[in-house]
Each structure stands twice: as C-alpha cells, then as structure tokens.
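User: I'm writing a short report section on ligand binding and want a predicted complex to refer to. Could you take this sequence and adenosine-5'-diphosphate and write out the structure as tokens? A short remark afterwards would be nice.
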Amino acid sequence: MSVTIEAKNLIKEFGGFKAVDGVNLSVNQGEVYGFLGPNGAGKTTTIRMLTGTLKPTGGEIKVLGLDLKKHELEIKRRIGVVPDEPRIYSNLKGFEFLDFVIEIYRVDRKKTKERIDELCDVFGVNYLEKTISDMSHGMKQKLYLVSVLMRKPEILFLDEPTVGLDAKSAKILKMLLQKYSSEGSTVFMTTHVLEIAEKMCTRIGIINKGRLIAEGTLLELKNAANKTQASLEDIFLQLTADGEDIEAVIKEL
Ligand SMILES: Nc1ncnc2c1ncn2[C@@H]1O[C@H](COP(=O)(O)OP(=O)(O)O)[C@@H](O)[C@H]1O
Ligand SMILES: [Mg+2]
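Assistant: Sure. The structure tokens for the complex follow:
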C-alpha cells in the first residue's frame, strides 16, 4: 500500500501564533482519512498547506510521492480540492463553469461529459443553466463537487464537505466517496462532526490546538482509550476538553 499523503513536522505560524504545531501525517492510497477536531483546531490550515494554497512555516509535504515544493503544478493537476468556501466565478452559468474546468485541467471532454451527466443525476444538479450568483450555498457546493469529481482526481481533499448539504446529498456524497476509495483513490477530509468521521472514514486523526493528539481506526481509538463501550464522541470530548489535562488523557491511550 503506497503512501499518498505525507507530512513531516508541519508547522504554520500566524504572527507568533502556531495554528499548526508539528503535525505528522501518513495516509495510504485508498484510505478515507478523517481529520477531526473542534473549531479552530487547525484543520483548514493543514489542508490548505497539503494542497499547496498556503505556504508552511516549516516541515515537509509529499503528495503522490512528490515533494510539494518542487512539483506543485503536477500535484495540483492530479488532485482535487473542495475548500470549505469554494471560490467560484459567480457571473458564469453552471455549465460554463464546468466547461472552464475542463479547459484548464485539459481533461478528456467526451469522457468527462458522461461523468458530468452521471454526477448531476445523482446529486440532483438540474440547474446548470442558472447563473452561479443565483444559486444557494448548497447548490454551489454540489456544482463544485461535480466539477472536482468529474476529473477523477487521484486524491480528493475535502474541507468540511457536508456543511451546507442536505441529508440526502450528504448521504450520496458518502456513498460516492466510498466507491471512489474502493477504486483506489484516496480521500482526505476534515470535519468537526464526529458522526461524519465515524460513518465515513477508515482512519481518523484528531487534531486539537494545532497538534495531532490521537490517530487510528475507530476501533483502535476506542481500544486505545480502553473504553470499548465509549463512542468516538466520548473519546473526542475527553481528548479535546478545555481545562482538562489532555496530556494525562493521552498517556492513558
Ligand atoms: N490567515 C490567518 N491569519 C491568522 N490566524 C489564522 C489565519 N487562518 C487561521 N488562523 C487561526 O488559526 C487557527 C486554526 O484555524 P483553522 O485552521 O481555520 O481551524 P479549523 O479549520 O480547525 O476550524 C485559528 O485560531 C484561526 O483563528
Ligand atoms: Mg476549518
């Protein structure tokens, strides 16, 4: 199993403040990796560094076996990124935006059109004639998902992908991500919602205050916490509890 995302001692400082503080990550091909943590933990900052949109203060990143510093363009062509707030050209119509993405990524137009039809069908995107500025947040998000999934990227990075999606779309996304990973692609997603990590991810890393404080499969996390009856929520709350001695909790793991 090859490692497709690797970060070593990743650091991001804003002013003197360390938003990401020495994170090490190793994600294998085909995994659905959940990067879980409370608000402000450093999830978005980490994913932005991993995808080349934010320069780290320190540390090394390899994506698809390539050094991100040296092969940024190739990596960006081969991965797909769904940011928490996609910036999407609001004066275009839906289909114009998809055409634009096909152009810039130079993907096979005919094959991609077929995938667009399938994806629009499953997500209920029947509004490609609408101008983007007239779409709701959820509608834009689904359009953006189509624009990324249609390219079949080798790794998919998603920042809080289910925020703004209705229950049905969230379920469809979950099924698509599972299918996608079963076909050998890798998924790296952030979430602050425990249930989502619990339901969707094969492995979970918990980040708090810029540090990765626990990692493993749900079962491993539970076993390590020696609380087989505990839900991930218990573990998560325990690990990220403010005012509690997190070090002591971790020692127990
Ligand atoms: N551009 C920025 N300038 C200053 N501080 C930032 C910036 N981006 C994020 N931060 C801070 O870094 C911390 C982590 O933020 P973020 O990665 O967005 O958290 P999360 O996505 O886990 O909710 C927060 O304290 C946030 O205020
Ligand atoms: Mg975030």
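A remark for your report: DSSP finds ten helices and ten strands in the chain. The domain at 3-252 is CATH 3.40.50.300 (Rossmann fold).
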